[in-house]
Design a protein that fits this description.
Layout (H helix, E strand, L loop, with lengths): L5 E3 L4 H10 L8 E3 L5 H13 L3 H6 L22 H7 L1
Antiparallel strand pairs: 1-2
């Protein structure tokens, strides 16, 4: 079975991790289930197009898909999105 992805808004990484660890996912903006949208494979391209920077610059950002939890080999994993993508989508 492949990976399944959900996206949700949080005020910061600590808040995102708290929602993730509590398994509540009750953020005020709702969870967006983009089941096949791998953040590492897709969102670098999306951010590059939205912001006008290269994919290499996006991927060089330390927040690009930074692992926020201590995920096991089987997951689940929580990764961050860059501030550039956040701002472009806002």
């Amino acid at each position: 079975m492949g990976n399944i992805y959900d996206y949700y808004a949080a005020t910061d990484d600590g808040h995102a991790l708290a929602l993730f660890e509590d398994d509540r996912m009750d953020d005020p903006f709702g969870t967006l289930g983009l089941k096949g949208a791998d953040p590492y494979l897709l969102l670098g391209t999306v951010e590059a197009h939205l912001t006008g920077v290269s994919e290499e610059q996006v991927e060089a950002d330390p927040r690009f898909c930074e692992l926020l939890n201590e995920g096991e080999n089987e997951g689940p994993w929580l990764v961050s999105l860059t501030d550039g993508l956040r701002d472009a989508l806002a």
